[in-house]
Amino acid sequence: MKKFLTAISVSLLLLASSGLEASAQHAGVIHLDDNSFDNGIKSGYVLVDFWATWCPPCRMLSPVIDEIAYDFRGKVSVAKVDVDKAPDTARKFAVSSIPTLILFKDGKAVKGWMGYKSKEELTTLIEKEIR
């Protein structure tokens, strides 16, 4: 019985994690690295989430970022940069604490925020900048 329950638990975890990845893809979040960053932010508004897999506040922010991407689709693109995989980009923008969020317009940084933000708080901050 324990083996059966363990198998069910593992299956559910795998299903749940694949669902999270699918929701991020459907939300339109793009993943940028040192090679793709400049091209990824060159036109329009782009909110970039600088994060790392080992960062608990970053993981807490991830579903908020997915929701923001969905809510602002057509107005603001949303991208994620793993600072461990894109150290040059993180250094270029002086990212010293994560999560760090930077809003770009046509390739230029407009505004930045550090730390976890609720969906409501982040929505207000973004709307203030894109008016």
From TrEMBL:
GO molecular function terms listed in the Swiss-Prot or TrEMBL record: protein-disulfide reductase activity
PROSITE patterns recorded: THIOREDOXIN_1, THIOREDOXIN_2
Cited InterPro entries: Thioredoxin, Thioredoxin-like_sf, Thioredoxin_CS, Thioredoxin_domain
Keywords tagged on the record: Disulfide bond, Electron transport, Redox-active center, Signal, Transport
UniProt-listed SUPFAM superfamilies: Thioredoxin-like
A GO BP entry: cell redox homeostasis
Annotated GO CC locations: cytosol
Coiled-coil segments: none
Signal sequence bounds: 1-22
Thioredoxin domain segment(s): 11-131
Family: Belongs to the thioredoxin family.
Stated name of the protein: Thioredoxin
Gene designation per UniProt: trxA
